[in-house]
């Protein structure tokens, strides 16, 4: 029973963590796949989303659902000038420039978060509705986390619908696959970029907001979770939208399992997995670009 | 050499045949270079009360130079270069506990250890480019940091290695707290390794390396064994970084986890970008400027300092791609011919 | 007795379900000037990509001077003597013409391994680069940036680079493409003057160039080799006319062949 309970813990917590990671990462998978821009500042949008939602809930007593909605919309709108001012120049820039500029933006984002909200982590109090537990027999599972899983699943379905069943999605997939040919058949790729970027930032904000009790908000959030988000993106491969959900959940589970089973070293299992996967990929593809 | 892009008059120090082709002329020494190293020497005489700080600036400068070799000249983006700095520091520190207190051989040991590590991971690592490479170097750096953290019996963990003893230099010059020996010792190493870096960059190998940075596929199609060259520069860079780490251990008599931290890797990147990537002197300008400013701003809230770093990185990419040296070169280009140094 | 320098056996490439090149057999002899013609999408560029090593074949083999190079990296093939130029110029645009050619000469002479002496002091490399440029009439452009010289002359630089690498087999991918007619003469003369012992494989669409230059022609259609024969035989072949040229092409063609 011990072992089963532990397994259940790993799976349940891993999946809920993975759902948050998925929501945050999917935007990055699309923008990196589409715009081919290495964006180290993606976590800033997630952090602002989380902080906005928490501020609305804690200081203005807004309900969770409404707070999420407002936070997502606010970040999505604010992402537009950021894209126009900064990211637009990166589409044709070298990888180094992309890394440097976006790391710089990440630093600015972290400094701003500290200026606005102070250096302490935001206490992750749950509204009464979500604070309870569901008894699953093997073990208890927080309502909040169950909601996160459901919400994540809903997002997966919604995104699947958008990408596979709409015009926009088809154009997006075409542009990710082969930008040149997509332009040649009349797709306005620049406008797609702006929309995809806004979508990605909105999703990141949603992830940061809905995951506030799993990934606590603090000024260093964009850096703290940068690595694991990038791991999900790197493992997914650029633009591979479908598999990103499963990979995010796998990363969530592996990370949770590692920390749980081998407390002193477990956090690094994900890093080893990353290194192993990258190495394996580099050997199966030719070494020269 | 600082004024590389200012067209030269006919006075040549080498075969005139390559006049006008910049990359074939890196070997030409500019007057500003002489001024730079002269100043570095003058610091010893004019600022005796700051020598300890100046020594740490030189150590960092050497580390940033090693980063310029791989990043600026070969295009290898690594967020984990502190790995080699740290390896050099710990190996040299530990060696002193085992009785190897002679400084020069100690520094060489640190450098060689780092180089050996690079020789092992390089051929595998450097098959990656772009995001995968960034991720894996980041991951390796973090793993090394945490490993050092856990292996307390070896590294002293959080407390670090302290009480490092270094024998007098050449058996004659003792290490005083005024850092007189330390400064000249580190300056000597920095200058020598700089000369090595300079000759590499000016050589056909260096020219080929920059070609790889600009278009590695094209280079392979003229017969260049790309991976082999990348591994070579990676190993050399690791050696320089390892020596820098060793010097850090020898001059501060202490090795802490910070030598392996992501902070160290990113900090070096920031300093290099500030000075100018791929100009050889980028680190030599960027590190001192950054560290001096940081020294005066050290009372600040660390988060506010992030505004500076963030603004710097963003500003450089958007407005001043060549860093401080790039700005200086731009200004020099606009001066009337006679006024150029 | 001229020997075979390059041969491919059943070389095949698929992209998913699409077979882009199917069972290509080709043999090139010393000094041969082979033109590779065929409609767009017929598989010529794919074939050349497999030769240079940038595309991995799904099956089949490539032999250079009797040695199997099918699995070799692109740089090894260049060192073995198989060199290609590009349809779209891929020179280093911000470097001077001399620097571009220096890179190739340096690698060929083994100087690129040296880290201590300055690049300009390797006189043998500089001279080799200069010679190649002089032989192509590019002396005046030596220190100009590639981006600053006329496109036609940029293509000449590509030839200079190829020469420095001492190829035994040279693959030219539409060398005259994009060059205004006024500038192409320089390029075509240069190709004419290439050493006779190099085997040359040239992708071309311009039949006049084919007629002037080729000793034999291979026709690609839909991923396979339709035929390999002398220019005369190919150009008067019914199948080639109908598949490749279409009706109006046929007429233009006939007038070319008859020298009108």
Order of helices and strands of chain B: HHHHHHEHHHEHHHH
Number of strands of chain C: 10
Structural class of chain C: alpha/beta
Query: Can you give the helix content of chain C as a percent range?
Result: 25-40%
Fraction of residues in β-strands of chain B = under 5%
Poorly predicted regions of chain B are: 1-15
| CATH fold-level topology of the domain at 4-91 and 167-257 in chain C | Rossmann fold
> What integer value in Å does the Rg of chain B equal?
20 Å
Mean pLDDT of chain C: 87
Write up this protein.
The complex is a heterotrimer of chains A (289), B (341) and C (260). Chain A has a single domain, classed as ABC transporter involved in vitamin B12 uptake, BtuC (Orthogonal Bundle). The model of chain A has no long low-confidence stretch (mean pLDDT 85). Chain A has 289 residues and is mainly α. In chain A, helix 1 runs parallel beside helix 6, helix 2 runs antiparallel to helix 3 and helix 6 packs across helix 7. Chain A has 13 helices and 2 strands, in the order αααααββαααααααα. In chain A, 75% of the residues lie in helices and 2% in strands. Chain B has 341 residues and is mainly α. Chain B has a domain of 211 residues. Chain B has 13 helices and 2 strands. In chain B, strands 1-2 form a two-stranded antiparallel ribbon. In chain B, helix 2 packs parallel to helix 7, helix 7 packs antiparallel against helix 9 and helix 10 packs parallel to helix 13. The N terminus of chain B is likely disordered. Chain C has 260 residues and is α/β, with parallel strands linked by helices. Chain C has a domain of 179 residues: Rossmann fold, CATH 3.40.50. Helix content of chain C is 38%, strand content 24%. Chain C contains 9 helices and 10 strands. Chain C has a 6-stranded mixed beta sheet, with helices on both faces. In chain C, strand 1 and strand 2 form a beta hairpin. In chain C, helix 3 crosses helix 4 and helix 5 packs parallel to helix 6. Classes of the chains: A mainly alpha (289), B mainly alpha (341), C alpha/beta (260). Chains in contact: A-B, A-C, B-C. At the A-B interface, helix 4, helix 11 and helix 13 of A face helix 5, helix 8, helix 10 and helix 12 of B.
